[in-house]
């Protein structure tokens, strides 16, 4: 099996995660331009922190991310930054989100490592979410 290892000062790693998070009360608020702006914010935030975006799909009531993340940086920190940054910018730019929700995101999220299936299979799954 061939690995695409990444390295930093003291570790070599190949860590990919499937992350899903949703708006408070699973409200369908990620529509009408909010979805496209959210994609831009998530991409910029992932790049800012030097992590890898493999695939991203925004549904009306949840977000699927397939990301590569340095284990020393931590997936928990990346999700915290993604949710915090996107909530701040989206609520500033789309005031209707402030009226409908006390906070944009739930406190929870789903995260699993990619390993039981190939990265390509999971990538196709995330891409196919819009067609359901």
Any overview of this molecule?
- There is one protein chain.
- The chain has 132 residues and is an alpha+beta fold.
- It has one domain: Transposase IS200-like (Alpha-Beta Plaits).
- It has helices spanning 34-48, 75-93, 96-100, 119-127, and strands at residues 6-7, 12-13, 16-21, 52-58, 63-68, 110-113.
- The strands form 2 sheets. Strands 4-5-3-6 form a 4-stranded antiparallel sheet, sandwiched between helices. Strands 1-2 form a two-stranded antiparallel sheet.
- The longest helix is centred in the middle third of the chain and has 19 residues, at 75-93.
- It is globular.
- The N and C termini lie far apart (32 Å).
- The mean pLDDT is 92.
Strand content: 15-25%
Q: Tell me the name of the CATH homologous superfamily.
A: Transposase IS200-like
Strands of the widest sheet, in order across it, are 4-5-3-6
CATH topology (fold) name: Alpha-Beta Plaits
Approximate shape: globular
Uncertain regions: pLDDT < 50 for 5+ in a row?
Answer: none
Class based on secondary structure composition and strand pairing: alpha+beta
Contiguous helical run count: 4
Number of strand elements: 6
Order of helices and strands: EEEHEEHHEH
* Helix content bin: 25-40%
Through-space gap between termini: 32 Å
Mean pLDDT across all amino acids: 92
Radius of gyration: 15 Å
In the CATH hierarchy, what is the architecture at level 2?
Answer: 2-Layer Sandwich
**Number of self-contained structural domains:** 1
Largest sheet, in brief, is: 4 strands, antiparallel
CATH secondary-structure class = Alpha Beta
């Amino acid at each position: 099996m061939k690995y695409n290892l990444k390295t930093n000062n003291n570790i070599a790693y190949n860590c990919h995660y499937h992350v899903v998070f949703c708006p408070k009360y699973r409200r369908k608020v990620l529509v009408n331009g909010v979805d496209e702006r959210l994609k831009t914010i998530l991409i910029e935030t992932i790049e800012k922190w030097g992590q890898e975006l493999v695939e991203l799909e925004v549904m009306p009531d949840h977000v699927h991310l397939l990301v590569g993340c340095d284990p020393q940086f931590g997936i928990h920190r990346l999700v915290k930054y993604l949710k915090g940054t996107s909530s701040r910018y989206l609520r500033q730019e789309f005031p209707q989100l402030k009226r409908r929700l006390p906070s944009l995101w739930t406190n929870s999220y789903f995260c699993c490592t990619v390993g039981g299936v190939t990265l390509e299979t999971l990538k196709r799954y995330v891409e196919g979410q819009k067609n359901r």
